[in-house]
Amino acid sequence: MPVDLAIEAVAGALADAGLTARDVDGLLVNSSQGVRPDRLGVALARQGGLGDLRLLEHVEIKGATAVAMIQRAVLAIRAGLASTVVCVFADAPLRAGGTSGSTYAHSGGSDGARGLERASGVLGSVPTYALLASRYFAVSGGDPEDLCAVAVSTRAWALGNPDAVVRKPLDAEGYFASRMISTPLRVLDCARPVNGAVALVVSGEATPGPAPRIHVRGMGQAHPMRRRRAPGESWFGGGRAAVDGALAMAGLTRADLDVVELYDPFSVVTLLLLEEYGLVEPGQAGKVVRSGATAPGGDLPVNTGGGQLSGFYLQGMTPLAEAVVQLRGTGGARQVPGASTALVGGIGGRVDHHACLILDLEPSR
């Protein structure tokens, strides 16, 4: 059950910080989309044995929520509304007699445009992002070789991550041998859902735990209002403002970033975010990834735990948790040497929501 996973994650995070439940006066929760009886909610405060709280909310902007929860916690602490806030996500889509695909296929509802899509066989996110991938190819001049390069790069990182779901080496031959799900997306272009949870503690003061503390240097959000009809672009644009705002708040530039951790439910999302966030020139993401720049040993390390394609899919907590690992220097075989500054990016919906963090080992520069 998600609640059991969440309780375990919260206990682990508090122990890591050298705190107890008595030190917590804020709790922010998020759960995967879809109305399910076991969906995680604010009842976790009682179920997890927390005491009286000053802040308790269920935050929801889809895949951007994990980053947004950290932002919400920071703002609440700065405003004096809380002092120590736990942010947690948990989900359990894998169950006996079913598949994660069947679970996610029911998200989005059956009314309006989504109902029309469902009646036409567009179930869940895979066919939707397949349309996005086709549009990306048309706009950028890219091709399936670019998707392959992303999958191979993230798998190379996953080989050094003991928590990754898939740790078998992958090359182009293996990628193109994988079955097609919704053209042009193959099974290896899609995230790997797991039953699990991640919790992080945000505190306004130094915690007594022995691990290095990570500082939130910059934050940003952007929510382009897409109309999904001509003549406007229905997929791209608008996300760069979130990164620009976070970097400006941090007083840093893109050149200062040591690692980049992006929400990557599908391989094409990595390509479009690299361009949209101004990390590579428009239309050049495929070329950059194929060059090895984003893979181990490259000069633009991206999704260093294997991302959601080969690591694990726990919504926006996946890139956030990996950023903490890298900045703490506990990445083991996948550790980026000297990593001290990270960009974490989360998206929600059909690239409708963007939330970004700049995380740093140093409180100020």
TrEMBL record:
It comes from the Bacteria. SUPFAM superfamilies: Thiolase-like (SSF53901). InterPro entries: Thiolase, Thiolase-like, Thiolase_C_2. Residues 239-359 form the Thiolase C-terminal domain. One of its GO terms (molecular function) is acyltransferase activity, transferring groups other than amino-acyl groups. PANTHER family: ACETYL-COA C-ACETYLTRANSFERASE, NON-SPECIFIC LIPID-TRANSFER PROTEIN-LIKE 2. This is Thiolase. The lineage of its organism: Bacteria, Bacillati, Actinomycetota, Actinomycetes, Frankiales.
